């Protein structure tokens, strides 16, 4: 049996790949480049290549909310994506397809359905995107992370599996650096704040931190994952800024462009507070670690999915929301508010603990393998 994995959310895909192990050979179909115009290798390509899994690049087009030359070019590429999906599937002949949504998942699943390959999909967000909603009509089983997503799919196909979280990020494997503090002695040491824009980084998150960096470093230790998009050059600029900080502030600022999954366990385990985007993978990792957060929802995320996640967690009492368009000084005030009440926020994780299923990956893999065998 040969399993093809595709789609737009890498975190749960990697969790599933780890769960499958040597039960079946895996092929991954995705995008080789994070930004086509820069030819920057994508995170998914790097992570899949590291696991010695065959990777097929599919330069599919997609609809975007912006109207410019690049968006027109993307729309024109949509038919090409279906043609190339046909070429890939005809060549590798998978026995089943597991998709995690996104503009690459749609052509792969559509062609797979026409070739009579069983389709399984996983939806990470509260409100599914267009690709998964369309694919849901011909999928055999639909796995969802939030019970609220059930209403968007044929109910007989839906399984509330939860969102698979990579086991590698739940354990401390490798220290990217050594921070002289622990979450158990916050009152004696400076609290540790992890700023992140997700795997690719976020220029907006970086810019907000940069504006108040000296003030924050006086009272907090900061771990900052910037991403490395050449257009903004944030990582290099902030490294230069760090080098010019006074010694007492510089030692509180730990800067990286990217953390590998075997390093994230240490970052989460050391952090008392996380500031960043509210994508599905991030919020489930934060539930697993019980880390209070300040979410900066991506304003143009599909269906306002990040805002919905942030609002759910704010209502549960484990997070606060800072709007990207707001003043950076207000972010500083929210940080002070949350850091002064960390234990209260942590205790409120009981309000969301039912969302996190430790065996989500096992549920999905057992279901697709048993369904295929039958």
Automatic annotation (TrEMBL):
Top enzyme category: transferase
Primary location group: membrane
Record-annotated Glycosyltransferase family 28 N-terminal domain positions: 6-144
Domain of life from the UniProt record: Bacteria
EC number(s) recorded for this UniProt protein: 2.4.1.227
Membrane topology of the entry: Peripheral membrane protein
Record-annotated Glycosyl transferase family 28 C-terminal domain positions: 192-360
Transmembrane segments: 72-90, 96-117
GO cellular component, one term: plasma membrane
InterPro entries per UniProt: GlcNAc_MurG (IPR006009), Glyco_trans_28_C (IPR007235), GlycoTrans_28_N (IPR004276)
One Pfam assignment: Glyco_tran_28_C
Claim: Flavoprotein is one of the keywords in the record: no
Keyword list, A-Z: Cell cycle, Cell division, Cell membrane, Cell shape, Cell wall biogenesis/degradation, Coiled coil, Glycosyltransferase, Membrane, Peptidoglycan synthesis, Transferase, Transmembrane, Transmembrane helix
Function: Cell wall formation. Catalyzes the transfer of a GlcNAc subunit on undecaprenyl-pyrophosphoryl-MurNAc-pentapeptide (lipid intermediate I) to form undecaprenyl-pyrophosphoryl-MurNAc-(pentapeptide)GlcNAc (lipid intermediate II).
Database matches in HAMAP family: MurG (MF_00033)
Family under the similarity heading: Belongs to the glycosyltransferase 28 family. MurG subfamily.
Name this polypeptide is given: UDP-N-acetylglucosamine--N-acetylmuramyl-(pentapeptide) pyrophosphoryl-undecaprenol N-acetylglucosamine transferase
Organism: Candidatus Roizmanbacteria bacterium RIFCSPHIGHO2_02_FULL_38_11
Taxonomic path: Bacteria, Candidatus Roizmaniibacteriota
Gene: murG
């Amino acid at each position: 049996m040969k399993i093809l994995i595709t789609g737009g959310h890498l975190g749960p895909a990697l969790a599933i790949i780890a769960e499958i192990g040597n039960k079946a050979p895996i092929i991954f179909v995705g995008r080789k480049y994070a930004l086509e115009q820069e030819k920057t290798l994508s995170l998914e390509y790097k992570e899949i290549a590291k696991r010695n899994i065959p990777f097929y690049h599919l330069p599919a087009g997609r609809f975007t909310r912006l109207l410019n030359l690049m968006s027109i070019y993307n729309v024109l590429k949509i038919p090409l994506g279906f043609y190339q999906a046909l070429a890939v599937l005809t060549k590798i002949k998978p026995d089943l397809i597991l998709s995690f949504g996104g503009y690459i998942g749609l052509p792969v699943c559509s062609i797979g359905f026409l070739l009579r390959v069983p389709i399984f999909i996983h939806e990470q967000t509260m409100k599914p995107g267009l690709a998964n909603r369309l694919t849901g009509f011909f999928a055999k089983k639909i796995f969802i992370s939030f019970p609220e997503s059930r209403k968007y799919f044929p109910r007989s196909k839906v399984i509330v599996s939860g969102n698979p979280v990579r086991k590698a990020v739940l354990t401390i494997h490798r220290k990217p650096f050594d921070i002289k503090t622990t979450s158990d002695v916050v009152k004696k040491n400076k609290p540790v704040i992890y700023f992140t824009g997700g795997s690719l980084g976020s220029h907006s998150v970086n810019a907000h931190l940069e504006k108040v960096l000296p003030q924050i470093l006086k009272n907090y230790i900061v771990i900052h994952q910037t991403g490395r998009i050449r257009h903004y050059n944030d990582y290099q600029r902030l490294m230069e800024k760090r080098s010019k900080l006074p010694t007492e502030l510089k030692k509180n600022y730990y800067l990286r462009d990217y953390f590998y999954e075997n390093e994230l366990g240490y970052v989460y385990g050391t952090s008392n507070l996380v500031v960043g985007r509210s994508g599905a993978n991030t919020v489930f990792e934060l539930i697993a670690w019980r880390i209070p957060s300040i979410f900066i929802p991506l304003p143009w995320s599909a269906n306002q999915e990040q805002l919905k996640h942030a609002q759910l967690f704010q209502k549960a009492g484990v997070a606060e929301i800072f709007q990207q368009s707001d003043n950076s000084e207000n972010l500083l005030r929210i940080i002070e508010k949350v850091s002064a009440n960390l234990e209260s926020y942590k205790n409120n994780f009981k309000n969301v603990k039912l969302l996190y299923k430790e065996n989500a990956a096992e549920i999905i893999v057992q279901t697709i393998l048993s369904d295929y065998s039958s």
